[in-house]
Automatic annotation (TrEMBL):
<keyword id="KW-0812">Transmembrane</keyword>
<keyword id="KW-0472">Membrane</keyword>
<protein>
    <submittedName>
        <fullName>Protein vte6, chloroplastic</fullName>
    </submittedName>
</protein>
<comment type="similarity">
    <text>Belongs to the TMEM19 family.</text>
</comment>
<feature type="transmembrane region" description="Helical">
    <location>
        <begin position="91"/>
        <end position="117"/>
    </location>
</feature>
<feature type="transmembrane region" description="Helical">
    <location>
        <begin position="123"/>
        <end position="143"/>
    </location>
</feature>
<keyword id="KW-1133">Transmembrane helix</keyword>
<dbReference type="InterPro" id="IPR002794">
    <property type="entry name" value="DUF92_TMEM19"/>
</dbReference>
<feature type="transmembrane region" description="Helical">
    <location>
        <begin position="164"/>
        <end position="183"/>
    </location>
</feature>
<dbReference type="Pfam" id="PF01940">
    <property type="entry name" value="DUF92"/>
</dbReference>
Length: 327
C-alpha cells in the first residue's frame, strides 16, 4: 500500500507546484549579494556630490600652491630689492648650493656668507650677488689646486681650504661698507655708482690676491720677496712669483668683466677695478714682507691684512674714478 501511494496522480502535481520556489531559493544562494543593491545606487546624488567636493578641494589646493609660487617669484624679482626679497633669494640659493658651500666654507663661515649674501642682494640686487658668487667659486677652486702638495710643504690653508667667518668678514669688509653706504643713500645719486664701483673693486682685489697666492704656491718656480727681491720659499709672507702674479691679474680681469656684463660697472670702470686691484695687492705684499709676523705686529694676521688690502683697492678705485670724472 505504501509503494502504491507514490504513484498517485496528486504527488507529481504537488512536486511541480513546489519546484519554482526551490529554484528561486537556490539561485539566490549562488550569488546572494546580487539580491542587495550596491552602495552607489543607494544614493547616486550623494556619490556625485562627494566626487565634486573632492575635485573642488584638489583644484583649490593647486591654485593655492600656484599662488604661493607666483608670489615668491614676484618677491625675488622685486625692483628695487627689499630685505624680504634678499632674504628669500638667499634661502633658496644657499639651500640649492649647499654642497658647494660646504666644500669651501665651515659651518660658521656659511652663516657669515649668508649675511653677506643677504646684504649684497639688498644693496645691489642679483647682479651684486652674482659677482660675489663668482668670486667664491673661483677663489675656492684656486685654493683646492694641488692641495696635497701645499699641505706637504706646509703652505696650505687650514681645514682643507674651508674658510671660517673671520676669513669671510676679512674678505668682504670693504664690500659690506659699500653696500651699507648704497642702501642708506649716502652722498645721494652722485655717489650711488661710486659705491657700486668700490664694491666691485674690493672683490676684484681680494680675488686677485687669493688666486695669485694659491697659484703661486702651487706652480711658482721662483718666489721673490718684494722688498729685497731675494729668492724665498713658497708661502713666505710678502713673496710673489711671475706665475702667481699673472694668474691674479687674469682673475681680476675676469671678475671685472662679470661686473661689466651684469651692468654694475662700465668698461672704463672695469679697467679701474683691475688697476686698483694690482696696486692694492702690491701694497699688501709690502705690508706682509715688512710687518707681518714681525716683533710687535703679531696682531697683523691674514684677516687684518685682507681688510687693509680690499679697503685700499676700493679707495683707489673711487679716487681714480673721481679724477677721471673731473678731467
Amino acid at each position: 500500500m505504501a509503494f502504491s501511494s507514490l504513484s498517485s496522480p496528486g504527488l507529481p502535481l504537488l512536486l511541480r507546484l513546489e519546484k519554482p520556489k526551490l529554484s528561486f531559493f537556490t539561485s539566490n544562494l549562488q550569488n546572494p549579494f546580487d539580491y542587495f543593491p550596491q552602495s552607489s545606487t543607494l544614493n547616486p546624488r550623494h556619490h556625485q556630490k562627494m566626487s565634486r567636493t573632492s575635485s573642488s578641494i584638489k583644484a583649490q589646493a593647486s591654485v593655492t600652491d600656484l599662488g604661493i609660487v607666483q608670489r615668491a617669484i614676484q618677491l625675488v624679482q622685486s625692483s628695487p630689492p627689499t630685505w624680504q626679497s634678499a632674504l628669500l633669494s638667499n634661502i633658496i640659493i644657499f639651500t640649492v648650493g649647499s654642497p658647494l658651500l660646504v666644500s669651501g666654507l665651515s659651518l660658521s663661515g656659511i652663516g657669515a656668507a649668508f649675511l653677506l649674501g643677504t646684504l649684497t642682494w639688498r644693496a645691489f640686487g642679483s647682479s651684486g650677488f652674482l659677482l660675489v658668487a663668482t668670486y667664491f667659486v673661483i677663489g675656492t677652486a684656486a685654493t683646492k689646486v694641488k692641495m696635497a702638495q701645499k699641505e706637504a710643504q706646509g703652505v696650505a690653508e687650514k681645514r682643507k681650504g674651508r674658510r671660517g667667518p673671520g676669513s669671510v668678514i676679512g674678505s668682504s669688509a670693504a664690500g659690506c661698507v659699500c653696500a651699507f653706504l648704497s642702501i642708506n643713500g649716502v652722498g645721494g645719486e652722485a655717489f650711488t655708482r661710486l659705491w657700486e664701483l668700490a664694491f666691485v673693486a674690493s672683490f676684484c682685489t681680494k680675488l686677485s690676491d687669493t688666486v695669485s697666492s694659491e697659484i703661486g704656491k702651487a706652480y711658482g718656480k721662483t718666489t721673490y720677496l718684494v722688498t729685497t727681491f731675494k729668492v724665498v720659499p713658497r708661502g713666505t709672507e710678502g713673496a710673489v712669483s711671475a706665475e702667481g702674479t699673472l694668474a691674479g691679474l687674469l682673475a681680476s680681469v675676469l671678475l671685472a668683466s662679470v661686473g661689466c656684463l651684469t651692468g654694475q660697472i662700465n668698461i672704463p670702470g672695469a679697467a679701474i677695478c683691475v688697476i686698483a686691484a694690482q696696486i692694492a695687492n702690491f701694497g699688501e705684499s709690502l705690508i706682509g714682507a715688512s710687518f707681518q709676523e714681525k716683533e710687535g705686529f703679531h696682531w697683523l694676521n691674514n684677516d687684518v691684512v685682507n681688510v687693509i688690502n680690499i679697503s685700499l683697492g676700493s679707495i683707489l678705485a673711487v679716487l681714480m674714478q673721481k679724477i677721471i670724472l673731473q678731467s
